Amino acid sequence: MADAAEQIFASVRNAAQRGAPLYLQLKKSIEDAVHAGIIGPGDALPSERDIALKADVSRVTVRKAVQDLVRGGILVQRHGSGTFVAPRVERVEQSLSLLTSFTEDMARRGMTVRSTWLDRGIYPPSPDEMMVLGLSSKEFVARVSRLRIANDTPLAIERASLSATALPDPAAVGSSLYAALEKTGNRPVRAVQRISAANLGEADARLLDVPAGSASLNIERISYLASGKVIEFTRSIYRGDAYDFVAELRLSGRADNAGAAA
Ligand code: GLP
Q: How far does residue 178's CA lie from ligand 1's centre (Å)?
């Protein structure tokens, strides 16, 4: 990094007279260095003081440039250990017409999946869960909440609710909820999804390893068994910088289904 730092910050020192605010010049030179691969994911930036010296700008200018880059997801700051180039996130393209599980989606792309458990247990249902899952206040709900991680990048937070009759032991769910449901003949065959844009709050942003306020896609999936009974009500929060949802559209009235589903 020492040579790279010299190169990046010297360019600011030399260009400093050319009009644009200094923090923007510094920000651009760091951004350019990341895009050109001069510094890569995980590389540590020199300290604020060092950058100020090398670029011949004030520490306030450095702080402003770095804060902007953290907000933009180019850099990450870790308490106590400094500022780093953010890990590169491979965007995942997700078809909207296939009822697949997270594990299957990632496996198809050759990505390794793991999950961190945020919660799993049997609870009295919330009003929302009672309405969607058709439960009475005397029945129970099984909750399975996970941070879903692909190739070591946290991609989504998924909070699934099912009737406790369908999933009496949430602790027995292994790496895939749908695989567990499949075993008991409860794997959904149809689902309706609602997708909306949002900005991440502090806690969810921390889990997804992005700055608070970053863009996210919130998805509510209600899944059905072949009998028409609702089996799953899942609220998911996907990182906006990591997911593209792709929908195939057809002219209405054409019965031609050849080659459907991307
Ligand atoms: C997707 C859906 C969830 C579903 C999950 C199951 O990500 N958005 O509604 O619960 O897949 O995935 P898995 O079987 O890997 O646990």
A: 7
Q: 177 CA distance to ligand 1 centroid (A)?
A: 6
pLDDT in tens, 186-216: 999 999 999 999 999 999 999 999 889 999 9
Q: What's the predicted TM-score (pTM) here?
A: 0.71
pLDDT at residue 42 above 90? no
- DSSP annotation string for the chain: -HHHHHHHHHHHHHHTTSSS-HHHHHHHHHHHHHHTTSS-TTPBPPPHHHHHHHHT--HHHHHHHHHHHHHTTSEEEETTTEEEEPPP---EEEESS----HHHHHHHTT--EEEEEEEEEEEPPPHHHHHHHT--TTS-EEEEEEEEEETTEEEEEEEEEEETTT-S-GGG--S-HHHHHHHTT---SEEEEEEEEEE--HHHHHHHTS-TT-EEEEEEEEEE-TTS-EEEEEEEEEETTTEEEE-----TT----TT---
Ligand 1 within 6 A of 155 CB? no
Q: Per-residue pLDDT tens for 215-241? A: 999 999 999 999 999 999 999 999 988
